[in-house]
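Protocol step 4 of 6.
Sequence for DUF721 domain-containing protein (Serratia marcescens) entered exactly as in the expression construct, tag removed. Do not edit the line below.
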Amino acid sequence: MRDSRPQLLDVLFDDASAGSKGPLHNVQQRAVALLKLNRAVKGLLPAPLHPWCRVANFRQGILVLETANASWMMRLRYEQPALLSALRAQILPSLSSIDIRINPALMAKGSHQVRNAEKAPEKPVPMRHLSLESAEELRGLASRSPEKLRKILERLAALAGEGTNTTSRDK
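Step 5 output, structure tokens:
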């Protein structure tokens, strides 16, 4: 019969730290194994799939992968045969199949990871220069244009020779 009485957390942690085969030790080993498997799977998948896919479980020869939505699930299904053969050859010879499931909670986690990647330092925007010939053409066009457009073209032609940034606009 199973021992289902509550146990103190101190006892569980002491057993786990002592290296005995207690319940927490088994959970920790399983978690470490799944983390290693997750790293291996992500190493075999294309980079765009990384934030949207993770290993959920491995039992009875079936690898369970979770993905954020149906769109990512279809992309993962395209990679499934190559992933299955690579995992069988490199890590899990006992792997029989891959099951892909949708977990909407990954959508929030994945979009957060993508936003953090986008916050990486951006490359400086190159400076654009307006040549003197282009400025003369703009002035000629301005002389034949209506009042409102003429003022805009003249202001643009006045920028010739100055370094102007693509994001700055003089009004």
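Step 6, annotate. The first helix runs from residue 9 to 17.
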